[in-house]
Specification:
This protein is mainly β and 334 residues long. It has 2 domains: 28-176; 203-250 and 258-327, Immunoglobulin-like (Sandwich), CATH 2.60.40.2550. It has helices spanning 2-22, 287-293, and strands at 28-31, 38-40, 43-49, 64-73, 80-89, 95-101, 105-107, 110-120, 125-130, 134-138, 145-150, 158-160, 162-165, 167-169, 172-176, 207-213, 217-224, 228-238, 262-273, 279-284, 301-311, 317-327. Strands 3, 5, 6, 7, 9, 11, 12 and 13 form an 8-stranded antiparallel sheet that branches. Strands 1-15-4-8 form a 4-stranded antiparallel sheet, with no helix packed on it. A 4-stranded antiparallel sheet has the order 19-18-21-22, sandwiched between helices. Strand 21 and strand 22 (317-327) form a beta hairpin. The radius of gyration is 33 Å and the shape is rod-shaped.
């Protein structure tokens, strides 16, 4: 029974790991979602402060990846050409270093969402630059403070930004978590956020298991399609007999309860199995199983199962279960 409890505990822990792996932090929209209504020529803009209760934060709350940026342009005949820039505070009030940018985009009227991929740190801010006019909206709220640098604040340059109230930079960006730090957003760009080398879907793992029943143990040969930690466990069962030899499931009272039999858990431990290699698991038979085998004639056997289990990078469980027969080791009756 202790072995069975161990198997159940492992299964519970695997389920918890699966639930944890499937939950991920949501993306965060950073910046301002207002509609453009003015534009400053040859000016670089970044938000310095926002009114309390704003729906979007002023800066990236955590490190991650900007996967898209958005500008809403009203109906207009003017050509809106814009690039989004990422600014990092230097620690000096209203001073920032431009650390990254997108290419120029021509933005037609409507909601423009442009895909990109820029790694950001916690505290980085979203700004903009347009050669013919940088996208701005007026709020008339003195708590909205926009910073302006007269000119093109190029990536790598550090500048102080002049403050003006009642204005916002009319650009926002989606920041996604990047758990494996590969520079791809976990939600829309990285299909396998658990492994930095992969952006395609995490590969599923297939297992093969071949059991060899020995006298005191079961040798299990296991192969895996991907490198992974594989756990081997199993069980053996039989129906107990009364002293007279009758099966316990055959009750003397009509309609009486039937015994479910004896179930004994097996444990082979956990090993890392690599593709192209065969791992050997030695599953020792508990004393209760060995005692029972000594009561079973050689022509008969105890039945059981062996399971090889692993979890892939996405938290999905893979089981390979095979049947085993343990030959009886009792003396042949004359």
């Amino acid at each position: 029974m202790r072995a069975l409890r161990g198997v159940a505990l492992v299964g519970t822990l695997a389920l918890i790991a699966l639930l944890g792996a499937t939950s991920a932090s949501a993306s965060t929209e950073v910046g301002n979602t207002c509609t453009v209504d003015v534009g400053r020529e040859n000016a670089t803009e970044v938000q310095l402060a926002k009114a309390a209760g704003s729906a979007t934060p002023i800066a990236a709350p955590v490190a991650g990846v900007v996967t898209s940026w958005k500008v809403t342009v009203p109906p207009t005949d003017a050509v809106v050409v814009q690039k989004m820039r990422v600014f990092r505070p230097t620690g000096i009030p209203n001073e920032f270093t431009a650390v990254a940018e997108t290419p120029y985009e021509v933005l037609p009227p409507g909601s423009n969402v442009i895909a990109t991929r820029i790694a950001v740190q916690s505290g980085d801010r979203i700004g903009a630059y347009g050669p013919f006019g940088t996208v701005t909206c007026l709020t008339a709220n003195p708590e909205d403070v926009m910073g302006t640098y007269s000119g093109d604040a190029l990536v790598g340059e550090t500048h102080a930004f002049a403050a003006s109230t009642g204005e916002q930079v009319a650009v926002s960006a989606a920041v996604e978590p990047d758990r494996d730090n590969d520079g791809y957003g976990d939600e829309t760009q990285d299909k396998c956020p658990e492994k930095a080398a992969l952006q395609t879907p995490c590969p599923t793992i297939t297992l093969e298991a071949f059991p060899i029943a020995l006298k005191r143990s079961v040798l299990v040969l296991v192969g895996a399609s991907e490198a992974s930690a594989v756990q081997v466990f199993g069980q053996v069962s039989w129906k107990p007999r009364h002293r007279g030899g009758a099966l316990a499931s055959k009750t003397t009272k009509p309609g009486g309860p039937k015994s479910a039999g004896v179930v004994v858990g097996l444990s082979g431990g956990t090993q890392t199995v690599k593709p192209g290699e065969i791992a050997r698991f030695n599953v020792k038979l508990p004393n209760s199983v060995k005692r029972q085998l000594r009561q079973v004639p050689p022509g008969k056997s105890l039945k059981g199962t062996i399971t090889a289990r692993t979890t892939d990078l996405a938290g999905r469980l893979t089981d390979r279960t095979v049947n085993i027969r343990l030959r009886g080791q009792g003396r042949t009756q004359p």
